[in-house]
Give the backbone structure.
Amino acid sequence: METISIVDLPLDIKIIDILKRRGIRTLNPPQSEAIRKGLLDGKRLLVTSPTASGKTLIAELGIINYLLSKGGKAIYITPLRALTNEKYNTFKDWETLGIKIGMTSGDYDTDDAWLENYDIIVTTYEKLDSLWRHKAKWLNEVSYFVLDEFHYLNDPERGPTVESVAIRAKKRGIVLGLSATISNGKEIANWLDAELVATNWRPVPLKEGIIYPEKKGFVILYKDNTSRKIYGDDAIIAYTLDIISKGGQVLIFRSSRKLAESTARKIIQYMNFIKLEDKKLLEIARKIKEVEDAGSNEKEDLYNLVLRGVAYHHAGLSKGLRDIIESSFRDRILKVIVATPTLAAGVNLPARAVVIGDIYRYNRKVVGYMDLIPVMDYKQMSGRAGRPGFDENGEAVVVVRNKREAEKVYERYLMSDVEPIESKLGSENAFYSFLISIIASEGEKTTEELMEYVKETLLPKELAKKYFKSGLDWLLQHDIFAEMNDRITLTRFGRRISDLYINPFTAVTIREALEKNEKGCEIAYLHLLAYTPDGPSIGVSKAEEDALIDELNCEPFVDEPEDEYEFSNYISALKVAYIVYDWINEIDEDTILGKYGIGSGDLRAIIDTMDWLTYSGYHVASVLELKDHQDILKELHARVKDGVKPELIELVKIPGIGRVRARLLYQHDIKKPEDIVLNPEKVKQLLGPNLGEKIVREAARIIA
């Protein structure tokens, strides 16, 4: 595949200069192919190529060239908030051309009118869907859409929104899809009305292999049929030590948090023989001790691991801890990260070698059942091997138990194509939300007009028709849609749940429970919200199950279900309710983490979701004019974010004051913002002169 020199590109000299400043002289094969297929002429393209093959630069060139020649706005859409930050920082380079870069994610109940002053907006699929529902005026100026990580169409949770966004984006402007390698690229490109740019080129060649035991050690059998032997008692440890002793870094994927943590602890027992940058590691370990958003036990555990050049990484860790681990690995100071597979989908974190420790993972719906991981997941993990500029080759190995399993894995993962991309709109939850989204963003429609959008989905036509009929009936029956003069429109209730960005089944569950019940206890409200389809789910052991039910001292709004699967949701929601109840009653964070066996990242995720759901519950109660429920939910919402009792609500509204500082002030008779302004010296004495002064200023601003 021929490459193109940047000086031969028909681009503004200012664009060429920025590329030169980045050290780019020649476009790589996927980038060159995208140019040949019409990227700079505003053609719609779907680019499929491996991880780290320079797809972001394709989007940058497409967007910048389009904006400089045609004007308007462009949106770069990613499936994950972490990627949004990463892409935003990449695009900041172009601000020297007078192009303004904005970023938005989270907070779904707003139209972000401030973004009208920006030219390129980086956001998530969910946030763009929400902005369309809010009919943000500035979106009318957007005529260029980059759909990043487009293979997320296959993700059961995010796929429906990716598909829904793609359907509307292609009606509104130029679409550029960027995806990992997919097996039915032609079909998906046709669906997008785009031309396919498909390549398997990688900046660092990848050697794929399988490790299996053979007497006194292990054999690594590579895809090209070469092999080598390594020695030791444990395949993962033997291979890891082999790579790091040669100056490489290793990323190990394990199927669960427990396995990730125990593997990291095992590895440090062998790190005494490895040359490490002890001074720098001590610096990083100290930073970990200082992280504010993490529990003491996590910090202590990671402190001891990091001193030996190793860390684990999973969603149970706080963002502060994950950020330090990622940046230390990028700086090549940490030698080994043992992670759960979520890391493969998220941030860009390459290593010389990747170890896939497990090809099975637990099925969330069938207790005790293990599934083989999809080929796409294998490709995403193995694709992290090889650091451009540091490694001649990347190596990815799968650990298996014996030679017979090695043959199966060789066929399934090393020699097979990834699964074809298929629609994930084939469930009531997903499809009914899709219908709401179309009416909310595109305005009222006749049944026939709405059906035109349904025909645009990737669902098989007969299945789409079936869901359309049942969806329309259900949404009309539950007062979310109304039919007037043969046109489908949103009711007041429907408009509110669309703006809140909650699942229609969540809204109906809340409405039915509130209409049926008188005022309840705090646990009853928290349990109801956690039990909805939008609620956070969490593992519950058998011993915990009994304890949670025994502890229940008030009547929940939701009856205990007979069905085993529904009961596991019910009990998970009860555990979430107790976690949040302890949090809003100012129980110490370390105590909560220990009592419920969760990580600081879990606690933060639960609080964020319940913050949104208490807000949504309050607004559902308001629309239904259920005053008693409304007042309780309003107060619960005010308490959940900061984890405080009712008397501290006013104090935590002041920026810089959290639950600990608020309680300290309250104990010294400073109970509201006015007390802070009237007692500045006392506040400085309690919080220190600098922080105290800042808090006094903020309190004055709030009163004003």
About this structure: The first strand starts at residue 45 and ends at 48. The mean pLDDT is 95. The radius of gyration is 27 Å.
